[in-house]
Design brief:
There is one protein chain. This protein is an alpha/beta fold. The protein has a single domain, classed as Glycogen Phosphorylase B (Rossmann fold), CATH 3.40.50.2000. Helices cover 31% and strands 25% of the residues. It has a seven-stranded parallel sheet. Strand 4, helix 4 and strand 5 form a beta-alpha-beta unit. Helix 3 packs across helix 4. The longest helix is centred in the middle third of the chain and has 19 residues. The protein is globular and about 35 Å long.
Length: 151
C-alpha cells in the first residue's frame, strides 16, 4: 500500500508528522507547501506545492498550479490512500484521489474545538474517514470519528 501524506506547513504539517510511524511502515510520500520553513523527513519522498492564501490576489492562479502539480504527483506515485491534515493547497490532491477512486482520510485540525475549517467543511463530503480531535467537534461533523488528539 502506498500512502500520500498531505499537509500545508506549520501546525498542519506538525500534526501530520505525528503519523511518522505510519510513514515508516508503508511506502509513503509527502506533499506540502514550499516555504522558508525547513522540514526534516529523512528518506521520505517529498513534493512541494505553492503556498496558498485565499486572501491573495493570485489565489486562483496558485490553486490552478497546485492542481496540476498534484495531478503530476498522483500519476507519478499512484497512491492508494491520501491522509490529509489540511488546508487549502491540499484540496486538489484530496479531490484528485477521490476522482480516481482512492481512499481519503481527513484529520480536522487540533486547533478547531467548536468550528470547522473551510477545507474540513469541503472535504467532509468526500472523505472515507473523517477524524476530529475534540469530542465537541462531533456536533459540527456528526459522522466524524473521534479518537482523541494525535499529539
Amino acid at each position: 500500500m502506498k500512502i500520500c501524506f498531505a499537509a500545508s506547513t506549520g501546525g498542519h504539517f506538525e500534526q501530520l508528522m505525528m503519523l511518522k510511524p505510519l510513514m515508516k511502515k508503508y511506502d509513503s510520500l509527502i506533499i506540502t507547501e514550499k516555504t522558508s520553513y525547513k522540514i526534516n523527513v529523512e528518506d521520505i519522498r517529498t513534493f512541494y506545492l505553492k503556498q496558498t492564501n485565499r486572501n491573495e490576489w493570485c489565489f486562483l492562479l496558485k490553486m490552478f498550479i497546485n492542481f496540476f502539480k498534484s495531478l503530476y504527483v498522483f500519476f507519478k506515485e499512484k497512491p492508494d490512500l491520501v491522509i490529509c491534515t489540511g488546508v487549502l493547497s491540499m484540496i486538489p490532491i484530496c479531490l484528485i484521489a477521490k476522482f480516481f477512486r482512492r481512499k481519503l482520510i481527513y484529520i480536522e485540525s487540533f486547533a478547531k474545538i467548536s468550528s470547522p475549517t473551510l477545507s474540513g467543511k469541503l472535504l467532509y463530503k468526500f472523505a472515507d474517514q473523517f477524524y476530529v480531535q475534540w469530542e465537541s467537534m462531533l456536533e459540527v461533523y456528526p459522522k466524524a470519528i473521534y479518537k482523541g488528539g494525535i499529539y
